[in-house]
Amino acid sequence: MIKSLGRKQSDGYDDGGGGGDGALSLDNNEEEDSIKIIRGIRLYDYDSYKPNFDGNFRCLDGSKEVSFKRVNDDFCDCLSDGSDEPSTNACAKGRFYCKYQKRHITGRGVDVYVPSSRINDGICDCCDGSDEWLTITCKNKCT
């Protein structure tokens, strides 16, 4: 079985011998297989916000491993870096990375973030307003 871009695909080869009923079992659950990017993370950390083989999430500083179901559950499990709550304000040390990141053509630049305590507080901290999705609609002021 080949996994590509978040969808399960069959390689089309089945000789009927060997394992059990001789057929590949494909579950095409669209919701489960779709690619999801968690709000407030850096694109650089995208792969870190996927469940590992045990179905867990490892804090970005490596200090702790928790069930992936506990990511964004509004309870801070990664106390040292707040990385399990990128879209909530549950962690004192949490960071919310704004959607708009100004970069040089070489990819260099400084990550633009706000403390997670400022998420959905009614004040537009990110120039694109990405930190306010529940409370108000912000005008895009990015250049």
UniProtKB/TrEMBL annotation:
Transmembrane segments: none annotated. Gene3D superfamilies: Low-density Lipoprotein Receptor (4.10.400.10). It holds the Pfam family PRKCSH-like. The keyword Disulfide bond applies. One of its GO terms (cellular component) is glucosidase II complex. Residues 34-143 form the Glucosidase II beta subunit N-terminal domain. Keywords: Disulfide bond. GO terms for biological process: N-glycan processing. Residues 1-27 are annotated as: Disordered. This is (Mediterranean fruit fly) hypothetical protein. It comes from Ceratitis capitata (Mediterranean fruit fly).
